[in-house]
Amino acid sequence: MRSIELFSGAGGLALGLEGAGFDTAALFERDADACATLRANRPQWNVVKGDVQNVDFSAYGPVAFVAGGPPCQPFSMGGKARGQQDHRDMFPEAVRAVRVLRPQAFMFENVRGLLRPAFRGYVEYIRLQLMHPEFPVSCNVDWETNFRRLERHHTQRERTGELTYRVTINLANAADYGVPQQRHRVFFVGFRHDVDAGWSFPRRTHTRDDLLRAKHVTGSYWWEHGIQQPRQLSASKQARKIQQLAEAELFSLGDRWRTVRDALAGLIEPTVDNVDSNHRLQLGARPYPGHTGSPIDEPAKALKAGDHGVPGGENMLRYVDGACRYFSIRESARLQTFPDDYRFFGSWTEAMRQLGNAVPVELARVVAASIRAKLQAHVPRPLQSTG
Fold first, then answer.
1. Hey, is 301 helix, strand or coil?
2. CATH number for the 2-204+359-376 domain, one of 3.40.47.10, 3.40.50.2000, 1.10.10.10, 3.40.50.150?
3. Per-residue pLDDT tens digits for 360-371
4. Residue 303 above 50 pLDDT?
5. Catalytic residue set
6. Residue ranges covered by each domain of the chain
């Protein structure tokens, strides 16, 4: 089942699609270091370097699936949040790819900040464009005017022959799907109108309650790591929650959240002179209020790319005694569920930026696999072009 991916970055989403069984026809990325990473790890992939705005998508069809992660900086809580006024807003290119390629389904992901009230109108505008990708958006008026035009079009009952999609917007925490990181992502998922998919976002498979139970009720978490169970927590909301779990059933049918300690199991401590450039220790980590690193026995905080280097707090490991250091590239890759044989190119800062921008591989795989399963169950009739 052929697919293409826009804004591929270091390949987190691409690996997820690969794991879900999609055959990638092309990946589009403009960053040279990210392209080097993609090509070195998957020589068989057709990596197209350049600005996606200049791509003739018709040369890469037909495809069943289009995916991508438009740049998140316009909507990130850590950025300037200029949204649709930011030149890096590439959702119009995602819509263009759907319009040209007419896939059976698509998936576009972005940061949770996209769902802030300030962007509510623009998010609905994006959704309606993806629902009606052939609607002629005018370049001579502002997006609000186009939005009103599109709303009127959407309410019309007669749209014979128009290419349309059923689109849902879904918010997911990667930790709920086995990723050792609390990373919240928004997914726009659409199925073409002739694909009766009946799709819904995958149910979560891992829970915080099960991690609390394993750590503070059964003690199985510490046993797995060969560590003596620490004392119970002092009176707090979490302590009360633990007591409730202790009074309920001891075991759950679900899996627990994975922690930093889980992710780093089997790796030696990084050193400044490690021959493996992806597992060298970067000096200079300094915690400060609000930036205190990721506790080793919790899922990591969301890794960040940063506009000017690597932010300290999000990309640091905090040990039980409070000591902190930066995660190595390899450790960060594990937190993003990349395989250990996957290497990252560029300087430490550039490699960490690639990782901070990536979609967790396992989260991408779970969502893509659920979409592919629906597409396999339905064989749509060929659509006639209206162009």
1. strand
2. 3.40.50.150
3. 999 999 999 999
4. yes
5. 72
6. 2-204+359-376, 206-253
